[in-house]
Amino acid sequence: MCYKAAMQFDFDTLVERAGTGAMRWERYEGRDVVPLWVADTDFRTPPAVLAAFARRIEHGVFGYTSAPRALREEIVARTQRLYGWRIAPEWIVFLPGVVPGLHLAARHLVPADGHVLVPTPIYQHFKRAVELAPRAHDDVPLVLSGGRWVFDEQRLAAAVRPGTRLVFLCNPQNPGGTIFSRAELERLAAFAARHDLIVLSDEIHADLLLDAQPHVPIASLSPEVSRRTVTLASPNKTFNFPGAGCAWAIVEDAGLRRAFSSDHHATVHDPSLFGYVAALAAYRDAQPWLDAQLDYLRGNRDLVEAAVGGLRGLAMAHVQATYLAWIDANGLGVKDVQAHFLEHGVALSPGEQFGAPGYVRLNFGTQRARLEEALLRMRRAVDAAARA
């Protein structure tokens, strides 16, 4: 996008989040810490969404609310426009967030004696879902190839058991930042078909693409793939309103959809009224804001990659998507990497959460001045480790 368009929105002005109940900020309240851990951004929600909130508040009645037909229609039209994937409105199951969808899949799509494949490193709630269900599972490490975290297809095949029922996919990948290519997804889909596996694909970061490579929903590859796939999606991350909460699953197969939805209105509730309002406004009217945010995030991504590349003991793969940097700090030679950076005033997510000790995840979805300060503190932390 052009620079003039980016200037229509302000991502540089610092927004004070302390005292607002923000999880990322409240943990370190009163401390001189730059918190770059939980994956929400410090950017104000798009003006179009704020205006939609204001209109709904002006109405003044906030009763029980059904999923708006207009939102279903918008999701259907958008999915066709972006991906050439034709879905039907009845395939959409609304959820308060993607995380409940992970738990529903683990509990209702996998029998009690079933088994799940979990490619790691991966967002910690994938693991929590199978552990709390509980369901047997194998961690299958991704490999770093050509600067991207990708599947080790031989290890994936070797991990299959007679009871394996489900394989997890996170695309774009959190925390690694990979956008899986069509060819990579086709091979994963063929693997799932050979072993009669369901694919649970978390695609919450699908709009946060920093490189030119397109996002391909795995279910869009073919009707056969779609019928064995549950796709989780949400605008929560992209437009920064996770506290309002609106997500959905797209499930073509009616049997899978019934099983997946069996806890609906029992242990899992619908999105909030404001989640519906935000999702519809974001998809209808906030594309210019998203284009500007992506431009800003690319600048932040480049800043982080350059800084990490210049620090001895740290390394990271190129971030194709998301606003998350996955940093290998094994070369620092410190016992607890996350604690070491925290001592120097930067809060990062520990790699242990994602199945990879010695790594940290950095959220660069913040104002550039704040990010620059965090990177300066990280340099001091690296220097301190070298002196120890």
Question: Quick summary of this structure?
Answer:
The chain contains 15 helices and 15 strands. With 388 residues, the protein is α/β, with parallel strands linked by helices. The strands form four sheets. It has a seven-stranded mixed sheet with strand order 2-10-9-8-7-3-4, with helices on both faces. Strands 11-12-15-14 form a four-stranded antiparallel sheet, covered by helices on one side.
Sheet having the most strands: 7 strands, mixed
The Rg value, from CA coordinates, equals 21 Å
Quantity of strands, as a count: 15
Q: Globular, elongated, flat, extended or rod-shaped: what is the shape?
A: globular
CATH topology term of the largest domain: Aspartate Aminotransferase, domain 2
Structurally, the number of domains stands at 2
Could you state the CATH homologous superfamily of the largest domain?
Type I PLP-dependent aspartate aminotransferase-like (Major domain)
The side-by-side strand order for the widest beta sheet comes to 2-10-9-8-7-3-4
How would you spell out the order of helices and strands? HHEHHEHEHEEEHEHEHEHEHHHEEHEEEH
CATH top level assignment of the largest domain: Alpha Beta
Determine the N-to-C terminus distance.
46 Å
Strand portion: 15-25%
What's the tally of helices? 15
Low-confidence stretches: 1-6
**Class from secondary-structure proportions:** alpha/beta
- Helical content band: 25-40%
Mean pLDDT, to the nearest integer, reads 96
CATH architect. name of the largest domain = 3-Layer(aba) Sandwich
